[in-house]
Amino acid sequence: MLKKSIQIFLPEPGGDEKNPRIWLSSGTYPASESSFEQVCYRSNAFLPQAPWRQPTRDELRLLLPMPEDGGEPARWNIGADLGVIRIPPDCLSPLDRLNLNAIETLEDRVMTRDEEVAVAAVRDRIIGYCQGSPTTESLGINISNPNMTTITIYERVDANRQTYAGMHLDSWDKLPLKHRHKSRNRLCINLGREDRFFLFINLTLIDMFRTLGLSEAKDIYKHYRGLKLPEEFMSKNPAYPVLKLRISPGEAYIAPTENIIHDATNRGNRYPDITLTFLGYFGITI
User: Fold this and answer.
1) pLDDT tier at 69 (50, 70, 90 boundaries)?
2) pTM as predicted
């Protein structure tokens, strides 16, 4: 059963019946049990379980921010909350010279000095989304194949082979479990031609720890960084749904990817998946 934990801030909270923003999976399952995946996954990887469905009204009340007591609007929590924003076209205009939408295959990409300069210019323009420290780090432009169940590469074996991560936890800042909420979050812009979808489980790492019945007094050091919690949670809670959040071209998600299980999917797409990602302390002003 879906629990209340992470708030999802959307540009159109009322939704779009013709193009839904949020979907829920039927749970998760080990990638090793998949009979249709054409790529190699790391050992102990998990994937969202079909079929997908739209959330009920009661589930939306658990997912979307509601006014606090006294009618005050909900507040953004950098270490837990997640949102979708529309990036103003002028913020992305430095990328125009790269002609990214002309890319039809991964082999079409040629990295140049222009790309580094353009990304730095966009970085300067998204500072306004920072809350607190304006320091940001660029993870650059990433281009992935279309029609993938999950996108994140775990390890490159060689130029033609790689293993994929499946649902996973980032650890750029390497903070311990009790301080994961203080990690930088991620702003990831969809630069492609088609919708892509952010996948995540709507529980913070410490919420998963508690859901598993673990004790901070007894188990916190066993799970000091929490890196094994995603695997343990999904193996013991296979019916807990993955959320799929639509990110349209020109939109970005902001998410605490060091504190939640996540990945992304472009299943069904025809064109390469193109994103630009930054790490920082991003937020949405309510």
Assistant:
1) low
2) 0.94
